[in-house]
C-alpha cells in the first residue's frame, strides 16, 4: 500500500488486494463506475499509475469507451482531427503541439474560411440575382423560319363627309351647349354617330359630353363601319410575293382603339381569343385561316409547305414581300378629328398579338412612296431555364401564364387585358376595342374622360410599383406583372420615302388612261412596300449564366483552393457526426451496462 492517505479495500474472492490512491473527497456515484471501468480493463502494472489528473495519457479509443463524457467528446474530436482530409485541421488535434503553432494554424484556418465564405457568397449572389444571360445564338436564322409580320392598316380619315361631317357636328354640339342662338341640337341619329366617332378622335375633343355612359359595343362598331371610307376606294391594289391579289382576300377587318382597321396575316379571332372573349363584336371574317403549322414557341412545323398560314416569305427584297397601293378622297379629309395630318397608320406586329395602333405605328402620308425594310428581332429561351421562377428569368413560357380572354400569351396581350380590367373597375365599363365578355358594359361617349384617365392612372401605378419592387437586374413585380414572352418576335423597320406623283404614270392619251384619271379624280394616293431586308438574321437567346453545375463547380473550386475540401470531406464530416458518433455511444452504453452488471455481481 501507498504511504499516502488510503482506506481499506476488501478484495473480492479470487483477486489480490490492490492499494489505490484515492482523492481526499469521496467519489460521486457517476465517477465511481468510470474509475472502476478503467481499473478493471487496464493491465495491473499500468493501473497503479492512473489517476484523475492523467486523462491525456490514456489511449483515445479507451477514453471514448471508458472515459467521462468530456473525455469521450474530446477524444472523438481528436480522432476526427487525426483522420480528416481537410487541410490544417490535423495540426489542431495533435496533443503535444506547442501553443504558438496551434494559434498559427487557427489564424490560417479562420482566414481561409473567411475568404472562402466571402467569395462563395459572391458566387451565390450572381447565381441567385443574375442567373440569365442574353447572347447571340450559335447560328443565324433564315427569314423563312419566321412568319411575315401581321400588317394592320388604319386610315386617318374616319368618316365620309357625305354621310357624317364630324367638324360641323362638333361645333354644333358646342354652340348648342353654350346656348348660341339659332343653333339646333343634333338629331338622335346624329348623336349616335357623333358618340361613336368621337371615341376614335383626339382626346382634347372630349371636353363636351354627349350621349350615354354605356352603350352596346356592336352599335359603336356598326356606326364606325357605316361612316368609314369604302374599302375598295382605300385599298386599290395589292401584291403578295410578287403575285397580284385581291385586297379583300388578304386583308380582314379588325377593331382597334383607332376604329375599324384592316389586317394582313393576323390570326383569326378564334385562335387569338378564348371562348369567353369571342363575342360577335369581334367576329367579322367568314373564312378562318387556322395556324395549324405554326406557334410562337416552336415556329413552323417540319410538314409546313411554302404557303402556310400565317404567311411567310421565301427570301428578302421587295419582290418577296407585300405591296400596297392605297388612296383617299380629299373631300373626306377632316382636320378636326385626327388633326391636320392625313394618310394611314401601319403597325407591324406578331400574328398572335392584338394590334394596338396608338402605341407604335408608322405614318404613311399621301403622295408618298414608302419602303419599309424589316429586321426581325427574336429572343428565345433555353430549356435549362424552364425550372427557374418567371421573375428570376424575367419572362413567361406560354403555358405558365393563362390570360382570361387570350389564348396566346404575349406582353402586349397581357397589358391590354390588364388595362381592360382596370378600366372596368374604375369606370364600370370598358372601351369598345378592349377584350371583354358579352356581359361587360361598353363605355359610351359620356365615359370618354374616365377611360382615358384610367389608362394614365394604370401607367403611373405600374411605374411606382415597378420602381419600388425592382431588383438590381430584374424588373419589379406589379399587379399586372406582364413580363415578356420567353419566345418573342419584334419587327424593327427602316423607312425610306420619296414623292409619289401617281398622275404621271397614267397615260392620258389612251381611253383607259382617261377613264382611270376620271375614276381617281379628287383622290390622293400612297404606295407602300414591306419586305425583309436580309436573308438571315441573328437571334438572341436567354440561357443560364450560372447553372447548378456551374455554381457547384465554382463553390467546389473555392473550397478546394482555400481549405482542400472535397465532396468526400463533407461526407466524412457527416459520417463522424452521425454514424461514428452513434456507434461510439452504443459502445459506451454497452460497456457501462456490462460494468454495472459486474459491480452488482461483485457486491
In short:
The protein has helices at residues 29-41, 44-47, 60-66, 69-83, 89-93, 99-129, 166-177, 188-197, 217-227, 231-234, 247-250, 269-272, 335-338, 390-393, 411-427, 448-469, 511-519, 548-563, 567-577, 579-602; strands at 132-136, 141-142, 150-155, 214-215, 235-240, 243-245, 251-256, 259-264, 294-295, 299-300, 322-329, 343-349, 362-365, 368-381, 442-443, 488-499, 523-532, 536-537, 540-544.
Question: Could you please describe the fold and organization of this structure?
Answer:
Belongs to the amiloride-sensitive sodium channel (TC 1.A.6) family. It is found in: Membrane. The protein starts with 28 loop residues before the first helix and ends with a helix. The strands form 5 sheets. Strands 1, 5, 6, 11, 14, 16, 17 and 19 form an 8-stranded mixed β-sheet that branches. Strands 7-8-3-12-13 form a 5-stranded antiparallel β-sheet. The model is unreliable at 1-30 and 40-58 (pLDDT under 50). It has 20 helices and 19 strands. Helices cover 38% and strands 17% of the residues. 27% of the residues are buried. The chain has 2 domains: 61-129 and 550-600, no CATH class; 137-157 and 231-467 and 478-544, Acid-sensing ion channels like fold (Sandwich).
Amino acid at each position: 500500500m501507498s504511504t499516502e492517505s488510503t482506506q481499506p479495500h476488501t478484495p473480492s474472492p479470487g483477486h489480490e488486494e490492490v492499494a489505490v490512491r484515492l482523492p481526499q473527497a469521496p467519489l460521486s456515484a457517476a465517477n465511481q463506475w468510470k474509475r472502476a471501468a478503467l481499473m478493471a480493463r487496464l493491465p495491473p502494472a499500468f493501473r497503479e499509475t492512473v489517476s484523475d489528473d492523467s486523462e491525456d495519457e490514456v489511449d483515445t479509443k479507451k477514453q471514448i469507451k471508458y472515459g467521462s463524457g468530456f473525455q469521450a467528446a474530446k477524444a472523438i474530436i481528436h480522432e476526427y482531427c487525426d483522420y480528416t482530409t481537410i487541410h490544417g485541421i490535423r495540426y489542431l488535434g495533435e496533443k503535444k503541439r506547442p501553443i504558438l503553432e496551434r494559434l498559427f494554424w487557427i489564424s490560417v484556418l479562420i482566414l481561409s474560411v473567411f475568404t472562402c465564405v466571402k467569395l462563395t457568397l459572391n458566387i451565390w449572389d450572381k447565381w441567385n440575382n443574375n442567373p440569365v444571360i442574353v447572347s447571340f445564338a450559335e447560328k443565324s436564322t433564315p427569314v423563312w423560319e419566321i412568319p411575315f409580320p401581321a400588317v394592320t392598316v388604319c386610315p386617318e380619315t374616319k368618316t365620309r363627309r357625305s354621310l357624317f361631317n364630324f367638324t360641323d357636328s362638333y361645333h354644333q354640339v358646342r354652340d348648342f351647349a353654350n346656348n348660341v342662338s339659332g343653333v339646333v341640337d343634333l338629331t338622335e341619329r346624329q348623336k349616335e354617330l357623333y358618340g361613336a366617332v368621337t371615341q376614335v378622335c383626339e382626346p382634347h375633343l372630349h371636353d363636351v359630353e354627349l350621349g350615354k355612359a354605356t352603350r352596346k359595343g356592336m352599335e359603336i362598331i356598326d356606326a364606325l363601319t357605316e361612316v368609314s371610307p369604302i374599302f375598295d376606294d382605300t385599298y386599290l391594289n395589292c401584291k403578295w410575293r410578287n403575285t397580284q391579289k385581291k385586297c379583300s382576300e388578304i386583308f380582314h377587318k379588325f377593331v382597334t382603339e383607332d376604329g375599324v382597321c384592316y389586317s394582313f396575316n393576323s390570326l383569326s379571332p378564334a385562335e387569338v381569343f378564348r371562348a369567353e372573349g369571342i363575342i360577335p363584336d369581334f367576329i367579322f371574317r367568314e373564312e378562318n385561316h387556322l395556324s395549324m403549322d405554326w406557334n410562337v414557341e416552336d415556329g413552323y412545323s417540319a410538314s409546313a409547305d411554302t404557303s402556310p398560314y400565317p404567311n411567310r416569305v421565301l427570301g428578302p427584297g421587295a419582290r418577296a414581300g407585300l405591296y400596297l397601293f392605297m388612296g383617299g378622297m380629299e373631300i373626306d379629309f377632316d382636320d378636326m378629328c385626327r388633326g391636320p395630318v392625313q394618310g394611314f397608320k401601319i403597325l407591324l406586329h406578331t400574328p398572335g398579338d392584338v394590334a394596338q395602333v396608338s402605341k407604335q405605328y408608322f405614318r404613311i402620308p399621301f403622295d408618298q412612296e414608302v419602303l419599309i425594310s424589316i429586321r426581325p428581332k427574336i429572343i428565345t429561351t433555353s430549356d435549362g431555364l424552364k425550372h427557374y421562377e418567371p421573375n428570376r428569368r424575367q419572362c413567361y413560357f406560354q403555358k405558365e401564364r393563362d390570360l382570361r380572354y387570350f389564348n396566346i400569351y404575349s406582353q402586349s396581350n397581357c397589358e391590354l387585358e390588364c388595362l381592360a380590367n382596370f378600366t372596368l373597375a374604375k369606370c364600370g365599363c370598358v372601351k369598345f376595342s378592349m377584350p371583354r365578355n358579352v356581359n361587360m358594359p361598353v363605355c359610351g361617349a359620356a365615359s370618354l374622360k374616365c377611360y382615358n384617365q384610367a389608362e394614365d392612372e394604370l401607367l403611373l401605378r405600374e411605374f411606382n410599383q415597378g420602381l419600388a419592387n425592382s431588383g438590381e437586374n430584374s424588373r419589379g413585380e406589379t399587379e399586372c406583372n406582364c413580363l415578356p414572352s420567353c419566345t418573342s418576335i419584334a419587327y424593327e423597320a427602316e423607312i425610306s420615302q420619296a414623292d409619289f406623283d401617281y398622275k404621271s404614270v397614267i397615260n392620258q392619251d389612251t381611253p383607259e388612261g382617261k377613264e382611270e384619271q376620271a375614276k381617281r379624280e379628287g383622290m390622293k394616293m400612297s404606295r407602300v412596300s414591306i419586305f425583309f431586308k436580309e436573308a438571315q438574321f441573328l437571334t438572341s437567346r436567354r440561357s443560364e449564366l450560372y447553372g447548378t453545375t456551374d455554381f457547384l463547380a465554382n463553390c467546389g473550386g473555392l473550397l478546394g483552393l482555400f481549405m482542400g475540401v472535397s465532396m468526400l470531406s463533407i461526407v466524412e464530416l457527416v459520417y463522424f457526426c452521425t454514424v461514428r458518433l452513434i456507434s461510439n455511444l452504443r459502445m459506451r452504453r454497452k460497456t457501462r451496462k456490462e460494468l454495472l452488471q459486474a459491480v452488482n455481481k461483485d457486491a
